[in-house]
Predict the structure.
Amino acid sequence: MMSFGLPTLAGLMWDGWVGALGGFLIGGVAKVVVLQHGTFLINSACHTTGRQPYSTRCSARDSFLMELFTLTRAITIITMNFSTTTVTA
């Protein structure tokens, strides 16, 4: 709600209904589209580039380039490879 409502409200206060439409389209819709595409791009890159140090049964890979790009450690490999050790209540 805030992702679409806040840009629309800011655009409405800035330039009336035209600003509200622009705020909704650019500040709301375009932001969500870019965020989703970026997430899928990083996920695809993490499954295609790098090495597989643990096993080949999962497609996740350890890539230093992706670690630098996302500023994180390749947690996906650990969670996908060792997911059977989680405790269920």
Remarks:
- The chain has a mean pLDDT of 78.
- Residues 1-42 form one domain.
- The CA atoms of residues 58 and 80 lie 7 Å apart.
